[in-house]
Structures are given as C-alpha cells and as structure tokens.
Task: structure prediction
Amino acid sequence: MFITKTDYLAYKQCPKAFWLMNNADHWKSKNDSDNSKIDKVNMVTEVARGLFPGGNLVNLQGYKKMIQETKKLISNGVSIIYEGTFV
Result:
C-alpha cells in the first residue's frame, strides 16, 4: 500500500477516519471544498520549501521511480528532500 504525506497526516490525526477515506467508497466525493484543500496544501508546501531552501525535489513519476529517487538522494547524503517517497 502506498500512502502520501496527506494520508499519513490524516492517519496520525484519526486512524478511523483514514480507514474510512481509503475503504468506504461513499465517503469519497469530489466537490469545491476539495479544491480549497488542495490550494491550502499547495500554499503550505511553498512555505515549507521557503523555510528549507536548497532541497531536491523528487519528481512525480510513479511511486516506484519516486522511491528509487528518494533512496538515491538519501544515499548521496542529501539532507533536504521535497516530496520524498517511502515504502
């Protein structure tokens, strides 16, 4: 199972809600509030990158490639990684 940082944070806040989000189809609905949430996440991401400048971004390219890229950056001693992907 692959999880995003948003999934992880949702789980840390409420494991039951995380389970429902991933297992109950009727809870999954797209609406205007979803776009608002995405905008907020993007804003937080930009602020975080500003606080930790000079990092390396793991490009969105499929989980397996992202995992490999993250491992490579860590093994090369990179200490600031944006959008790192782990299994």
